[in-house]
Amino acid sequence: MRSTVRRALVTGIIFALAATLPAGVAHAAIDPSPNFQQAPLPDQFTILKMGSRGIEVHNAKKRLRDLGFPPGNLSSTYDSALRMTVWAFQKANGLRPVDRIDLPTWQALLRPRRIRPLVGYGGSERTEIDLRRQLLTVWRGGKPVLVTHISTGARRSYCEKGHCGFADTPVGDYRVGARVPGWSTGVLGSMFYSVYFNGGIAVHGSTLVPRFPASHGCVRVPLHNAVPLYRLLQPGDPVYVRRPEVRVERRPEAHPERPRRIPRARHPEVPRDPRGRATSARPAHGPRGR
């Protein structure tokens, strides 16, 4: 009963906040909880997952869109587009990608991590592809305007339909070339709104964009991001593909290793007379051999 009343109060306050927003603020974020600006508690946030419906799903989509992670439509249903958008947001904030918006994800939505460029000389208009985190970021005016989950080359040999090769997305500096709108079908499958940047390797929409590298070399993106990327990536725009190394912080040792102290060898006790003078008697264990 208490949880039902609390949810009703949350929904009412959210609608009240939405009504008070200025008309000119087109991308104003609506907090998914009335206590979103305070220290979060586990029972103040609803875990959202595939199939969830309601105002909190809608507000989460708006918040992601405002942060540069397009979730597709702004409906109140947790769909596959939101699922992959949440993956991208979680990876960009150092979280493990999971199929839900949990407490750590809500906290990241409140205080998102700053997105840093992969290259320092890329210029204000560029596209960066992170092969390690499987993320693509479009920069405009020196700011990230679109971040999406991707699936790149699986880095394995393949032979399909008489075509053999090695599935890899090479690291390097490239530029946008040919652009093909709509669906196009090649030897290895179908592509949606393709943008080529390295020979036959393109950024394109796909119906299969798993959480791991699985393509033949192209950069697969969710279908809902294919058209926005097609409009953003113009011929001649730079594209940087990188595989950043994982940074491992080494803590300095509190105490440097000291040489081990070797104890002195103990000699058999020398027999002495009552006055303390050494005698010539042999130890009790018998005479020594030569």
Describe this structure in words.
With 290 residues, the chain is an alpha+beta fold. The chain has 2 domains: 2-110, PGBD-like superfamily/PGBD (Muramoyl-pentapeptide Carboxypeptidase, domain 1, Orthogonal Bundle), CATH 1.10.101.10; 126-242, L,D-transpeptidase catalytic domain-like (Beta Barrel). The protein has 5 helices and 13 strands. The chain has helices at 2-19, 55-66, 80-92, 103-110, 223-232; strands at 48-49, 100-101, 126-130, 135-140, 143-149, 156-160, 163-167, 172-175, 179-186, 189-198, 201-206, 219-222, 238-242. Strands 5-4-3-13-8 form a 5-stranded mixed β-sheet. The longest helix has 18 residues, at 2-19. The relative contact order is 0.11. Keywords: Cell shape, Cell wall biogenesis/degradation, Peptidoglycan synthesis, Signal, Transferase. This is L,D-transpeptidase family protein. Residues 248-290 are annotated as: Disordered.
